[in-house]
């Protein structure tokens, strides 16, 4: 039988969920209530909201390091991997990315720097593979557009773009095959 999640993990997960609903609503009281712990239990693990934000950033850095390594070592190449995985809004990167983005949008400078570093790293890997910064940016925009469309509420985007991935990967292949 699986053990129930540790209180620290429950609190962090609750904070991420609340950030996704809106940064202002992610108060310590709301986090404790969502996690099903007392405020004292929350404060035992995270003595402040800043400590919670720091834990989100720590998790973000862990998940993004894994994502960047997977991109770097993908047998299909970094460009195809980036576009193919941009579709995966159910991946563990998605909620922690969006939570970090919410912190950045609220003015959290370390979150903003972490988001910038991730985007720069994705682009650097694409440039390293394809050798042409303009082509790398185009590939990144294809992946970002796909992510944006699949993360939209409602069913239109998923229904409209459900079969688009093979075509987009073919476009990536055309872009990269045309390079010297």
TrEMBL record:
PROSITE patterns: HTH_TETR_2. It comes from the Bacteria. Gene3D superfamilies: Tetracycline Repressor, domain 2. This is TetR family transcriptional regulator. Residues 5-64 form the HTH tetR-type domain. Residues 27-46 bind DNA. Keywords: DNA-binding, Transcription, Transcription regulation.
């Amino acid at each position: 039988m699986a053990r129930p999640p540790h209180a620290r993990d429950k609190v962090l997960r609750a904070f991420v969920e609340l950030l996704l609903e809106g940064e202002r609503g992610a108060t310590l009281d709301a986090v404790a209530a969502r996690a099903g712990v007392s405020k004292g239990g929350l404060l035992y693990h995270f003595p402040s909201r800043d400590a919670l934000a720091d834990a989100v950033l720590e998790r973000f850095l862990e998940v993004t390091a894994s994502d960047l390594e997977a991109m770097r070592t993908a047998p299909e190449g970094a460009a195809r991997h980036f576009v193919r995985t941009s579709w995966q809004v159910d991946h563990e990167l998605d909620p922690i990315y969006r939570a970090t983005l919410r912190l950045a949008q609220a003015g959290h400078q370390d979150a903003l720097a972490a988001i910038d570093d991730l985007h720069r790293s994705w682009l650097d890997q694409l440039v390293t593979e394809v050798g042409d910064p303009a082509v790398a940016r185009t590939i990144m925009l294809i992946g970002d557009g796909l992510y944006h469309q699949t993360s939209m509420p409602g069913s239109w985007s998923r229904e409209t773009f459900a079969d688009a991935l093979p075509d987009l990967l073919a476009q990536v292949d055309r872009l990269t095959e045309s390079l010297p």
